[in-house]
Amino acid sequence: MSPLNPYNTGPHHTAPAAFQWTHGVSNGKELHEATGACPECGCVMTKRYTTGQYTQPKGGFLGRRKGPGPQPFSTLCQCTSLHTDRPEGVQVGCGARITIASWLDGASQ
Ligand SMILES: [Zn+2]
Ligand SMILES: [Zn+2]
Fold it and tell me: 35 C-alpha vs ligand 1 centroid, how far in Å?
């Protein structure tokens, strides 16, 4: 896979990828950041969650989460590399929907 892959919304990686989680506090809110390589395009990306904001970013089928749990997180790729054919208005990602293992599953502490 190359960072120059064209944007493609087809791939959906359901096998949870082990990302590196960092935890902190931002503006009084608990902040969780997952950093790792997108399994589709291979670019390193960071996905950021704050407490109370566990919604899926549009089109998600899991709906709102009550909070962090052992369930993996589903997200669209957030890489900042340039992928050709990226639709207008879309700033990041290769189009793939990927799954990130939760920091609570013991595999990505
Ligand atoms: Zn990607
Ligand atoms: Zn990428």
Answer: 12
Structure tokens at 43: 């670019």
Q: What integer pLDDT is reported at residue 47 of this predicted model?
A: 95
Strand 29-37 to 20-26 pairing: antiparallel
Q: Residue 91: what residue type?
A: Q
Rounded mean pLDDT, 2-25? 90
State the distance from the centre of ligand 2 to the C-alpha of 56, rounded, in angstroms: 20
Domain ranges in the chain are 20-100
The CA 93 to ligand 1 mean position distance, Å, reads: 5
Burial class (CB in 10 A: 0-12, 13-18, 19+), 106: exposed
CA 34 / ligand 2 centre spacing (Å)? 15
Chain segment 17-58, per-residue pLDDT in tens: 999 999 998 888 889 999 999 999 999 999 998 865 544 444
